[in-house]
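Batch 3, record 17
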Amino acid sequence: MAYLQSMATRASTFSGKKGRLPYLLLAPGLFWLFTFFVLPIINLAGTSTQTPVVGGDTGQYVQTFRFANYVDAFNASREQFARSFIYATLATLLALAIAYPLAYAIAFRSGKYKNLLLVLVIAPFFTSFLLRTVAWKQILGESGFVVPALRALHIIGANATLTASALAVVTGMTYNFLPFMTLPLYASLERIDPRTLEASNDLYANAFTTFRKVTFPLSMPGVVAGTLLTFIPAAGDYVNAAILGNPNTTMLGNVIDSRFFRIVDYPTAAALSFMLMASILVLVTLYIRKSGTDELV
Amino acid sequence: MTTKNVISPETRDLIKAQLSRRGFIAGVGGVGAVGLLAACGTKAQTKTAVTTTDAGGTVRWANWTLYLDYDTATKKYPTLEAFQKKSGIAVSYKEDVNDNDEFYGKVQGQLKLGQDIGYDIVTLTDWMAGRWIRLGYTQKLDTTNLPNKVNILDKLASVGFDPGRVNSLTWQTGFAGFGWNKKKLPQGIHTVEQLFAPENKGKVEVLSEMRDTMGIIMQYQGVDIESGFTEAQFMNAIDFLQKKISDGFIRKVAGNGYKEDLISGDAVAVIGWSGDMFQLAAENANKFDFAIPESGGTLWSDNMMIPVTSKNKINAEKVMNYYYEPAVAAQVAAYVNYICPVKGAQAAMEKIDPKLAASPYIFPTTDTLSKVKVFRSLSPAEETTFSTAFQKATGN
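Prediction for the assembled complex:
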């Protein structure tokens, strides 16, 4: 009896704390989010509608709530907007095409090498993102082995180059974001109960039908997570375009960088950042709605 | 390349851009907490309280890459080592300036708020130095700590943006012109037509420094960049550049990064800086050369200044003074190969290398100087219009 009573008091004190506990656990995260996301966003919103001080010096702006900044910014950078989304989409599709068989093989066919293969997928993370991209510049450049080899085989012309091109930018993005695609795919493929595949087999489905009707639908959460983790950073990326591209392959990230740091045009840069964020948000919402994966939202 | 350039300037550029981006967000967060939305106009507070208290600590100096004599064997800067030993003043030398605009973009938030930008000496090009002085971001130099200031070349002793050199002192002066790979282009590059010859397609790089690239194109179009050219004339040159970019001639619009691409062979001809090209030639078996365009090149100077936020003014002035000793200046010039702004350095150079003492690119003759012009100063409004057009033409 005494034992039960003590249990009851312990339970009640626990549930009393329970009311506050989730909030306490959330506090650091919320604080972080507020300080480093909400406040800067508000500030950025403020900056985006400023105009230059009349007679002022470079970089001096005053708040005039000029929302036409958005229209001007968009019109000035339509090309780069389009390019950002096209390149990001291409990189995402390429990454999916490469990562799916890879994740599939690791999840179902790798046997005792599973852990080793997973480590290899993550291995590039041990080197800086920038260094890896610069490495690609060298691999694909004149001093690398790829260009001379392709020239010798007459696959490309004597004067053709691989760097400083749209191809190099998309390739670089695909490479850089590949692990972000592979890992969620692996996680959801690995979770598939083998008995569902056996059941499919028992019901006379061939391998392809099993993949189409069972494996792929069950891996959808991984596909959605992987494409989001690739597409979102790829659309805002500017490193690949800066290192592997040319002046005709710049993306929105490069424009924002140049507006902020070179022209010192904060309002336009802020407006562009906002538009990029908003368009990604809209696209992602539509995508999640369409793919019907509630687990993520 | 020298060992100090293990990371290409481009990479450094990007790493820095990321860091400054982070810095920007943190800074904005702080501002945001105080004044929201309407309150966050960015009008400069030029009346920042200047503290003249001297901490007497390490002098932190921001300069461009390959801009101070460097010993690849010891990985040290000989003249700077000698100064530190002699004076007991520690100097932290950082190759942190890759581009005037970028550097300004990185520190101007702190300058405006009067917070330490992390440097006691900054080295910036004329027009940007002019902006800093105009906005009150520099400290007046004290001549009592700078007795060697009298050694400055007469034509640099007083300049439009800083009459009497009250706030600044020239570090180096140089030319922008054509650089090329002698193996690939034995006939050299002397005209804009040669630069954009069909066989160079996709292998040309131009400077991201607007005044140098545009200055050379405008002079090619017969415009005098020193006097009051019009916006239409500038835009004509922009159209020319734009056409070369969309036709695929220009591989990259680069800051210091063009040097890496010349070495790797990804670029064969560039609009670049004189000293860079001579240093590259010296380090790569004389593979590269430089020439001032026949239609005219540009002349620019980089200037040492002490930011208002520095609490280490006296020591910073001592560093500047040291580099105005002719023998020291000659030693630096022998390495950087830019125009030396110090009187008497030519005589001192005779002892180091008579060939360099005769170089018109280090000690220019009036004939050499007649081939180059200084880009005229722009009003803030022109500055914004022109640099927006330039950035847009270059894909940004």
